[in-house]
Amino acid sequence: MTRVKRGYTARRRRKKIRLFASTFIGAHSRLTRTTTQQRMRALVSSHRDRSRKKRDFRRLWITRINAVTRKERVFYSYSKLIHNLYKRQLLLNRKILAQIALSNKNCFDMIFNKIINQK
Amino acid sequence: MAAAKPTVSSFFLTLASSSNDPSSSSPTTVTALPRSRFLSAGSSPKFSIAHSKPSFVTSSSPPRHKLPVRCQQQQNPPSIPPEQRWMFEESEINGPDIWNKTWYPKAADHISTEKTWYIVDATDKILGRMASTIAMHVRGKNLATYTPSVDMGAYVIVINAEKVAVSGKKRTQKLYRRHSGRPGGLKVETFDQLQQRIPERIVEHAVRGMLPKGRLGRALFTHLKVYEGPEHPHEAQKPVPLPIRDKRMQVQK
């Protein structure tokens, strides 16, 4: 076999990795080996958290809706609200309900009364 | 936060009523689930949902010192067909997209000086039940603006902490343990002894166990002010009585 110098291949690969981790703090963006590791961890987190994000947001909406329903009416809760929502066959999902509760309180009150009164 | 306008509510009410009777044929009925406001009856969605995601730069690299922050640039306004424009308010057409981005509090939404101050009189209140309500209010879980990563809660003052009550034989049997860090340094004392020594610590211990553990939890804990006796130095904050929903919080005599 002829002699093969390794040349620039490694440098080009590491340059891409370094670009990815260019905004990381301290040694995580400066030292090559650390940069590779941190890039791996970042990508793993990103992959895992794409599914987590959906769960986390749903959780947040549910907590917010729960807070508002409990404040509106004594002995009422998120679980009862959702049960009545489904019984009345309303299609509003938790995201929209939470955003309405935040942005347009009167609208949420109207929806809420509609759900309670004719359940 | 937008004030009440009839347009948004009527939009959702027609949705609600339309899902109940599918035979209604009002011009604002949407045939699909309301994921996008711009789905007109029958036609395929031609209009892009407002994308507030920043575009990602992967391979072609800008110079390292000048990375553009794309999420701060002008976002595409949602393109609403003119015949549907009457349904939406000004803030929805030209403002930020509230339906595809969950609300996150800005700095102006949680200024410490504008937070509510609550006051609880601990006389003859069951310790754990009172601590639970206090923790809910300190953490902000009773608000629609609750965010787990931001301190949106209120301040709570507890007075007469030495008169807090516990049921059963806990007064002599409940143990409070602490460790000094050195071997053999486990110190134990009962509820009664601690109440004689430092009565505030009982309520503080109870509430701290119910707050999240972490940096934010420790910051939240500083919003709890416990005092022995009926006096407290926070008259200037005009504290409001803490709304208590639990029926079993007062000791039954």
UniProtKB/TrEMBL annotation, chain A:
A family per Pfam: Ribosomal_L20
PROSITE patterns in UniProt: RIBOSOMAL_L20 (PS00937)
Keyword set, alphabetical order: Chloroplast, Plastid, Ribonucleoprotein, Ribosomal protein, RNA-binding, rRNA-binding
Entry GO CC: chloroplast; ribonucleoprotein complex; ribosome
Compartment(s) of residence: Plastid, Chloroplast
HAMAP family membership: Ribosomal_bL20
Protein name: 50S ribosomal protein L20
Biological classification of the source: Eukaryota, Viridiplantae, Streptophyta, Embryophyta, Tracheophyta
Automatic annotation (TrEMBL), chain B:
Ranges annotated as spanning the membrane: none
Ribonucleoprotein in keyword set: yes
UniProt feature, compositional bias: Basic and acidic residues: 244-253
Keyword field: Ribonucleoprotein, Ribosomal protein
InterPro entries named in the record: Ribosomal_uL13, Ribosomal_uL13_bac-type, Ribosomal_uL13_CS, Ribosomal_uL13_sf
Molecular function terms from GO: mRNA binding; structural constituent of ribosome
Pfam families registered for this protein in UniProt: Ribosomal_L13
One Gene Ontology cellular component: cytosolic large ribosomal subunit
Keyword Kinase on entry: no
Region spans: Disordered: 52-83, 230-253
GO BP, one annotated term: negative regulation of translation
Cited Gene3D superfamilies: Ribosomal protein L13
CDD domains: Ribosomal_L13
Alphabetical list of NCBIfam families matching this protein: rplM_bact (TIGR01066)
Family: Belongs to the universal ribosomal protein uL13 family.
Protein name per its UniProtKB record: Large ribosomal subunit protein uL13c
Organism name: Platanthera zijinensis
